[in-house]
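As a warm-up, study this chain.
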Amino acid sequence: MTELLLSEISESQDDLLRTFSLIEEFIFDDSSRIKDLLEPVIANCQEQLAEYEDQFEQAEHLINTLYVDHLFLDNERKKWPSLSFQLASAFENRMMFPILKAAIIQHIATECGFESDLVFVPEKTMVRLVCNESYAIIFDPLSGESLNFHELDTRMEELSAAPEQYHLAPMDVNILVVEYLTACKNALIGEENFNTALRCVDLLVSLRPEDPLERRDRGFLLHQLDCFKVACDDYRFFVEQCPEDPAAQLLKIQLDNIKITNTVIH
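Now compare it with the structure written out below.
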């Protein structure tokens, strides 16, 4: 099932909303209604933009329509609930995890005739809305606030490249998927929804099979679900790969004690 999903994700890389719809269906076992929910929003945006001819004015008005008329405005949160990782529920409650929200905005922009993508500007994933060959608006998907040239230069100075070498390439879809899955996993663990969190980790391990932290987390979840014998393999991998990690040292003691106990019993 996981391999099939990864294949479908690979084929849908040009459609970020479809990518997250596929992932959501796998994790939450529910088909997303998001495109049906977005239809009236798209229709309203198209109607509003028809009043403007200049594409820059259209872009500004699109952002204003989404964040004011359709209540996309939100604040940064330290923790996002699992609801915010499910497209339809997140949209209906206007509590969308930033990457999910960016994917929704990108879909709306595409339907309104704009070219758009997601870019990383330290320290955030932002939406780039292309107005013409020489100008684009880069804005925060949470607040809708755009960056001016000075703000962009200031943020890009954090990178090692010289200013003339700055190039904002579109973000890799796999990076976005990993960030989404990691945050979703943490939200589900915080809510003690271990079965669903395990589906996130299974995908993460499939994407990054040699990552010891993902193997540690899968071991933890399997342990919580009373599958300790299976969890041990992941715990051992983590201990071997990260011997200096305090958590690994504690796990090693626990694993050694289990081995000793087994030997005594047999």
